[in-house]
Amino acid sequence: MLADITIQNFAIVKSLELEFSKGMTAITGETGAGKSISIDALGLCLGDRADANMVRPGEKRAEISASFTLEQNSAARRWLQDNELEDGDDCILRRVITKEGRSRAYINGNPVPASQQKALGQLLINIHGQHAHQQLLRPEHQITLLDQYAGHQSLLDKMATRYQRWRRTKNELKALIKKKDDIDAQQQLLEYQVGELNELALGEEEYQQIEEEHKRLSNSGDIAMTSQAVVDLLSDGEETNTLSLLTAAQQRLSELAALDSHFSPLAEMLEEARIQTQETSQEVSGYLDQLDMDPQRLQYLDQRMSTIMGLSRKHHVQPEALYDTHQQLIKELEKLAHNDEAIEQLQAQVDQQFADCLDTAEKLSKSRRRYAKELNKLITQSMHQLSMEHGSFEIQVENKAETHLSPLGGDAVAFLVSTNPGQPLQPLSKVASGGELSRISLAIQVITAQKVETPSLIFDEVDVGISGPTAAIVGKLLRQLGDSTQVMCVTHLPQVAGCGHQQMFVAKDTDKGSTTTRMYPLDYKARISELARLLGGSEITERTLANAEDLLVAA
User: Fold this and answer.
1) Is the pLDDT of residue 431 over 80?
2) Angle between helix 153-178 and 180-200 (nearest 10)
3) Using CA atoms, how far apart are residues 161 and 159, in angstroms rounded to an integer?
4) Which of 109, 330, 382, 389 is the most buried (most CB within 10 A)?
5) CA distance 497 to 473
6) Whether 33 contacts 517, CB under 8 Å
């Protein structure tokens, strides 16, 4: 629960320190004194948006700090543990705003984004504003109230997860189908290109081999003439040749070696040269014997090279890379060929995920209808207590998941009411007057608040439009709620304020052109005086004092 709050230089507050207790705390004061200012300040600690106008004029910064006890708030303790911000059984939220509009947020002394403060704040306190009856007319707020009462958070999380998964897969399928025409055209082009290359049937290193063979055949005449000349020079020349000269020289060296051993290695070297020359001549002669000068083969190679060069230019690659291009196009074609299969698989996923969504939506709808019946009875009873004796309330839940699925499920939820005998149930906006709407809103807030896990509730002038005996009933309802939950209620009604377990007074002082708001707790005697002021206005008589004391005694 909220233990205390410290406010420095916020709006018209110079300095304020407040301690809060269990039960119901009524907050009263004169009109314009700033009764809601502590709630606005607390809202900053709960992650509300900061503004430079919030800083008291003439000051450099505003600072608000709120302390909470967490003994009975396991959800908040778990959140702090998960975010590594835990610091014992207490939690301190702090917010600093500069006059330039910059703000800093802290949890247990650790700087954090305001979004983290907001996430934690939802587990610490629940604020019901004075315009809640206007929000009550919005269908999205109606379904939120029903879900809060039913405790649907885990089911809503599951619904949202399944819905987002279904939407993602559906969009992916839609995009794939949209591309199908482009893919079909691309597939036709690839089939034509692969067909051409299949007809060519080029081997992995065939082009290099063809190029080599073509070069040899196209130059076979020159090769034959030059090769024969080499053979003649080496061994077949009639007048002289290299082999005969080497043989003669080697014989002379052998003769010299017999006379001087110094020539022996030289004779051996010439013998090796003679043998290599002979082998070279034999190799060249063998090549000449096998040399193919087939013109038909050369013509075939010319045509094949021409085809390869043409396809290379067509695909903007070098001839050597045409084989790899062929293989890549085959892979791309195979991938496109599986497009229809991919569409079928995605369609099956979409259908299954939609079925999962419908299943969760049906569970949500079934649970909503069950809790709606429970709320119908409780709110109708509360309307009777709040001077609408013939009132009737009903929550209509219609499952439209097949055609109107959303992250909240598929239900259309409508709050219907009848306030007069014989009047049919109709939407709130068409039936209830301003005062009736305020009472119905208050009844719903008090009833649903009993199911909210946050240990502290704030009602900021939610009793607008209520007076007389009805106000006394409202006070009793809030006090009853305060027996199990910390309740703070900003009110202008003495019947409501008198029901508080304790009461605080807000006063505004003006001195030398400077305005300051202060708030302080009232003792029993001061409470009587304040209630008498609320009852009698500017004139406080013995009778109003007695009536004020009667309110306290009755509470």
Assistant:
1) no
2) 50
3) 5
4) 382
5) 12
6) yes
What DSSP designation does 360 have? H
Q: Where are the beta strands (DSSP E) in 362-484?
A: 392-399, 411-418, 426-427, 456-460
Exposure string (b/e) for 60-81, b if CB count within 10 Å is 16 or more? ebbbbbbbbbbeebeebbebbe
Percentage of residues of the chain with pLDDT beyond 70? 94
Q: Report yes or no: 124 and 73 within 8 Å, Cβ to Cβ.
A: yes
Q: How far apart are CA 362 and CA 358, in angstroms?
A: 6
Which amino acid does the sequence have at 212?
E
The residue behind tokens 């036709």 is: 188
SS3 state at 486: strand
User: In angstroms, what is the C-alpha Rg of the chain?
Assistant: 48
Write out pLDDT tens, residues 326-377.
888 888 777 766 667 778 889 999 999 999 999 999 999 999 999 999 999 9
Write the secondary structure of 123-156 as one string of H (helix), E (strand) and C (coil): HHCEEECCCHHHHCCCHHHHHHHHHHHHCCHHHH
pLDDT at 132 over 60: no
pLDDT in tens, 469-488: 788 888 888 888 888 888 99
User: How does residue 182 score in pLDDT terms, banded at 50, 70 and 90?
Assistant: low
What tokens appear for 431 in the block? 């039936």
Say how far residue 236 (Cα) sits from the centre of its chain.
90
